[in-house]
From TrEMBL:
Catalyzes the attachment of proline to tRNA(Pro) in a two-step reaction: proline is first activated by ATP to form Pro-AMP and then transferred to the acceptor end of tRNA(Pro). As ProRS can inadvertently accommodate and process non-cognate amino acids such as alanine and cysteine, to avoid such errors it has two additional distinct editing activities against alanine. One activity is designated as 'pretransfer' editing and involves the tRNA(Pro)-independent hydrolysis of activated Ala-AMP. It catalyses: tRNA(Pro) + L-proline + ATP = L-prolyl-tRNA(Pro) + AMP + diphosphate. It is found in: Cytoplasm. Pfam families: HGTP_anticodon, tRNA-synt_2b, tRNA_edit. The gene is proS. It comes from Desulfuribacillus stibiiarsenatis. Keywords: Aminoacyl-tRNA synthetase, ATP-binding, Cytoplasm, Ligase, Nucleotide-binding, Protein biosynthesis. One of its GO terms (cellular component) is cytosol. GO terms for biological process: prolyl-tRNA aminoacylation. CDD domains: ProRS-INS, ProRS_anticodon_short, ProRS_core_prok. NCBIfam families: PRK09194.1, proS_fam_II. Homodimer. Its EC number is 6.1.1.15. This is Proline--tRNA ligase.
Length: 570
């Protein structure tokens, strides 16, 4: 492609609303433009990269014997009502009505659609297993779209669904997708981890793994062990049960703590560690009000709490709700003396505490030397907290480490959650009806593009890995008005095209400095510069990744570049 005719509106200045590297560079390199918040147009370079990533995904899906289809982004509300997610999914679901006042959604995911399709088309065990997938635009009404295409309201996703006769078959289908994901993200050049995760709004009855591209700007915290290789999302990482402290139980004492409302303030006032204080928090789990106790230096893990209570939604009570329930504002709440109808659950760490500090349910007062079982009762102890940096690994006790990650893929064992709700059944070999056993597998294609840019860039611009680069070679004559330079550059360009190489030819009249800045910004792996040495029979080959360069004889350019492009790492 000749650059003069290619729409690459590069920017010298960083857009004011761009917060992270990928957003800044994708805007500056002319890959995308924002239409409205969270909605983007892909320009030619960005679209080429997007299609390269799609091609890798498609090849690996087909290699795993998944079959590609395409369904509509518009889904009838009836399917979501059948599955129970019409109300449960939340405000991110983009809903609308047609002219006949019928409810529809713009699909954020397609479990219902694929399940209903298989319900109607598969009636015998002889037609299973089947895995089908699509690459399609999805929609989620994000409250706060951010980081460019990393968290957008419209995005490209590959979603696949497997249908098996039993859990053993699901295990095989899941493993095939798990392996395909590893191959996919390796080919995309990503540094990633596959970690244990929670099923979230999609849910399911079995295991689930997230594929996380490591990045400082990632919104997810990855907990991992340097010894045994354990890795999990912080929402999923389990805590080892803490042994009971061995010390004498002191007498419960009421103490005055004027205006000491926060854990930090209270610990400083009493000259104690935050971990010796028990926080009393009030939650609403669906329509039930729950008291949660946790150590002062810990945070409640809402996902663990929701799973423990088998709730659809959990949220902390607001101050006015607490005041209406207990007659006081938070700040001095404690588990002793609460109404008998309030269920109290606590983290395992609380069970192990002795002589702790708790709120007295009286303004400006706390108790010290409070002990569970003696001074207050707990209905159930469970793992309710976020694991902390340096806590013991749940597999081998080694102190865990933290990383940040961008979720680029997620695989789920759904079991019969959706097939039961939508009555997706088949006849087994005995003629008896059985529920299909399902798996679900998603890859954020557009998000993967942004993750690649986050990991493959420097202060000058993008550095594309070879498999996803929009072009492989960038031919730049320094002065297109110089007949010799232009002729040599054009011959190299045409020769490479004839060999099937993807080439961008910078035939613009711009100054050399501007051309080189743009070349660094858009990040094509190999660059051929045709300049002053052309009269001596030489051009320059420069590697975008390393910045290294060397002279090549003009007659050797094509053969050398073909050899370089056969190398896996440029």
């Amino acid at each position: 492609m000749k650059q003069q005719k290619l729409l690459i509106p590069t920017l010298r200045e960083v857009p004011s609303d761009a917060e992270v590297t990928s957003h800044k560079l994708m805007m500056r390199a002319g890959l995308i433009r924002q239409l409205v918040s969270g909605v983007y147009t892909y320009l030619p370079l960005g679209f080429k990269v997007l299609k390269k990533v799609e091609a890798i995904v498609r090849e690996e899906m087909n290699r795993s014997e998944a079959q590609e289809i395409l369904t509509s982004a518009i889904q009838p509300a009836e399917l979501w009502q059948e599955s129970g997610r019409w109300d449960a999914y939340g405000p991110e679901l983009m809903r609308f009505k047609d002219r006949h006042d019928r409810d529809f959604v713009l699909g954020p995911t397609h479990e219902e659609v694929f399940t209903s399709l298989m319900r109607d088309e598969i009636n015998s065990y002889k037609k299973l297993p089947v895995t089908i997938y699509q690459i399609q635009t999805k929609y989620r009404d994000e409250r706060r779209p951010r980081f460019g295409v990393i968290r957008a309201r419209e995005f490209i996703m590959k979603d696949a669904y497997s249908f098996d006769v039993d859990t053993a078959g699901l295990d095989e289908s899941y493993q095939a997708m798990y392996d395909a994901y590893h191959r996919t993200f390796k080919r995309c050049g990503l540094n990633y981890r596959a970690i244990e995760a929670d099923g979230g709004a999609i849910g399911g009855e079995g295991g689930t793994h997230e594929f996380m591209a490591l990045s400082e700007i990632g919104e997810d915290t990855i907990v991992h062990c340097p010894t045994c290789g354990f890795a999990a999302n912080i929402e999923k990482a389990e805590n080892i049960k803490v042994p009971k402290q061995q010390q004498n139980l002191e007498e419960l004492t009421l103490i005055e703590t004027p205006n000491q409302k926060s854990i930090k303030e209270l610990a400083s006032f009493l000259q104690v560690e935050e971990k010796t204080i028990i926080k009393t928090l009030l939650y609403k789990a669906d329509e039930q009000q729950i008291v949660v106790l946790i150590a002062g230096d810990d945070e409640v893990n809402d996902i663990k709490l929701k799973n423990l209570l088998d709730a659809t939604n959990v949220s902390m009570l607001q101050d006015d709700e607490i005041e209406a329930l207990l007659g006081q504002k938070p700040g001095f709440l404690g588990p002793k003396g609460l109404p008998a109808n309030l269920r109290i659950i606590a983290d395992y760490k609380v069970e192990a505490m002795n002589n702790a500090v708790i709120g007295a349910n009286k303004k400006d007062y706390h108790y010290k030397n409070a002990n569970p079982g003696r001074d207050f009762n707990v209905e159930q102890f469970a793992d309710l907290r976020n694991i902390q940096l340096g806590d013991p690994c749940p597999k081998c006790n080694t102190p865990v480490l933290f990383d940040r990650g961008i979720e680029v893929g997620h695989v789920f064992k759904l079991g019969t959650k959706y097939s039961k709700a939508l009555r997706a059944k088949f006849l087994d070999e005995n003629g008896k009806e059985q529920l299909m056993v399902m798996g679900c597998y998603g890859i954020g294609v557009s998000r993967t593009v942004a993750a690649i840019v986050e990991q493959h860039s420097d202060e000058n611009g993008i550095i594309w890995p070879k498999e996803v680069a929009p072009f492989h070679v960038h031919v730049i004559p320094i002065n297109v008005k110089n007949e010799k330079q232009y002729e040599v550059a054009l011959n190299i360009y045409n020769d490479l095209l004839a060999k099937g190489v993807e080439v961008l030819f910078d035939d613009r009249l711009d100054r050399a400095g501007s051309k080189f800045k743009d070349a660094d910004l858009i990040g094509i792996p190999l660059r051929i510069v045709v300049g002053g040495k052309v009269d001596e029979g030489f051009v320059e080959l420069k590697y975008r990744k390393t910045g290294e360069s060397r002279d090549l004889e003009i007659t050797q350019v094509t053969s050398v570049l073909l050899e370089e492009l056969n190398q896996l790492d440029l």
